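Build the 3D complex.
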Amino acid sequence: MKLSKNRNPVVPGFKAVGLSCGIKDKNTKDLALIVSNVPATAAGVFTKNRIVSPGVTWSRNALSKSKFCRAIIVNSGNANTVVGPKGFEDCDAITKLVAEELSIPQKEVLIASTGVIGVPLPSHKILQATPKLIQSLGRSQKHWTDASEAIMTTDLVSKSDKVSFDLKGHRIVIGGMSKGSGMIHPNMATMLGFLWTNAVIDSKTLKLALIEATDRSFNRITVDGDSSTNDCVIVLANGEAKNPTIKPNTSGYGEFLKALTKICKNLASKIILDGEGATKFVTVCVQGGKTRKQAYLIANSVATSSLVKTALFGEDPNWGRIYCAVGNAGAPFNPEKVDILLNKNLLLKNGCPTNLSPKKLEKAMRQHEINITIDLHCGKEWEEVLTCDFSYDYVKINAEYTT
Amino acid sequence: MKLSKNRNPVVPGFKAVGLSCGIKDKNTKDLALIVSNVPATAAGVFTKNRIVSPGVTWSRNALSKSKFCRAIIVNSGNANTVVGPKGFEDCDAITKLVAEELSIPQKEVLIASTGVIGVPLPSHKILQATPKLIQSLGRSQKHWTDASEAIMTTDLVSKSDKVSFDLKGHRIVIGGMSKGSGMIHPNMATMLGFLWTNAVIDSKTLKLALIEATDRSFNRITVDGDSSTNDCVIVLANGEAKNPTIKPNTSGYGEFLKALTKICKNLASKIILDGEGATKFVTVCVQGGKTRKQAYLIANSVATSSLVKTALFGEDPNWGRIYCAVGNAGAPFNPEKVDILLNKNLLLKNGCPTNLSPKKLEKAMRQHEINITIDLHCGKEWEEVLTCDFSYDYVKINAEYTT
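Done.
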């Protein structure tokens, strides 16, 4: 699929590095570190799967104990999940060494892993590489590219981005990177998102903004409907912009949230564009909803329907499948008020087919970007879920992952 | 896949027919009729999709108005769904003509449709064929085979079965047929089930038994997780066995329920065995549950996971995906108590990998029948969901359905 360009994610006061420590073979990068020069306020959101990686537990605990964070260490190639007590012991040992080498408190080091589950983490390789990792930290775009490459698993391309805006004369910059492709988040391909900004914002407000932003971005993408044991999105704010502290319910918060949502949505879209075997970039928008929940349930039902996704791959104008998925969402609505549009072609008006010419519809289906809009005409709430189609290659990639 | 043999579903007092009325081309059978010689008690269960076919509304209303039913007319090739007011008018006209020709009340005629949605039903073809349909009714196995073939859509084979048992010296027989393959129930391939028995049982008790039986059979199968707008299961009981009337909470009810569940499960299994592109017959059993709901949510999460299903197709011993789907079910459980078995091989004990030899596991994955057992060790409830794997052919069949 057509991929969007990665913007240089450099933000003043942050350093990064990515290298190979030997978890993956062929010298493939598999270890990344992000470091803030000063203690940064921090917030994270984590997977809702009831089975979680020890790394998720570690980072969640660290964020509850300390409002600050200095470093995030991330490995790919192994999820460090479902491996017994060794999993948590490894998190302890790794974060301890990183903290020692950086001369910072251990609770200010977060950790994340992605890769195959059930295989013990070769933590000695990470420990062995840690001194070199820290020596190699740097501020250049190359360093950030290396870091974003080191967190990839089945991803075909690395994913990074940057946004900026002026807040009362201060230039606020937010950089970020993400990974995930067989999605959300197959076979522990896991979705990871990391963000860093020079804004002055307290950790509580940062958490609020992160939740709002992820609920319009990372939490609204789906490739195959599964949530990994390792998913997380973490944001650090080092305050170097010296803006007046951003507080909830202010115009400054609104602007920060808008920028954070934008970069999260860009990074989430890159995941969809890199979806396993994907050939279409699909936006399912439900508008005219009575509640956000109703709109979300219906958008999600359409975006996760295997029947809709295979029809999109086949460029098959089978709108009946879309409507059927609307009915399957488990949310109430009035079937006689529903309109469905595909790339601005009205397929269904008040729940009845418009008998659009099949030729026109087939032409619309051939587009690379597909926008499905469902108007419930019963309120003003909306939700958008991004997804991709389901292709032969999706089956191929996923049938042959560990073997 | 290896298909199970169809048993002759003939039951005394019932006649059937199946023929081509021209909805499908190439003289393919597309119209079936089942008739009871005498008014039969009747019960039905219908799709939970919020968009329903007028046929579903018609039959649901008819069953609420009359406890008896004499005839069920079923067409394939067109779902008569999302077609505006004409859909219900067609149901009225067709059931009216069938009733006139059979000299029975219109409310004792039920109707069901399966096929593509959004295309007006060519009801004139059904009306034109109705006299011939009724003249051709018969009791032979051939007649039932024709009927079961006439309700097929993407099904590769027709599906029928019979069970019997003795109730206080009376031989009770239950026959049935089903359809559905791209499932549950893609692109309106729709799941339909029809059952007929000579038992004496009142309609209220029959409904109770049908709900219990379908909750252990038709409602526990999944190919792709979608529910059609047209799904229904209907049972008729003509009383010709002259047994003492079956009443709830009696041993007779228990035996009837057991037999009804057995035939429903057989007919549901045949749908899985005929699953679109399926190469594996998969049973996901969750046992040791605190509640049936918990067990069901977890079994269903595993059985509907695209990642699990593609791994099964690829014979990839990636048990991490199974465990991840358990965690994604949205039901509480204790991860430290979970055991997972695959064809009797213990993969996970108390939430930790058993490090089974990959060779042994790969051998188990090569079996045609896969039994995944998840023991939660927190109670006595269980649920079983039947499914199949996700293959290249699934994508192929579903990418090219209407085009």
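Residues 251-273 of chain A form the longest helix (23 residues).
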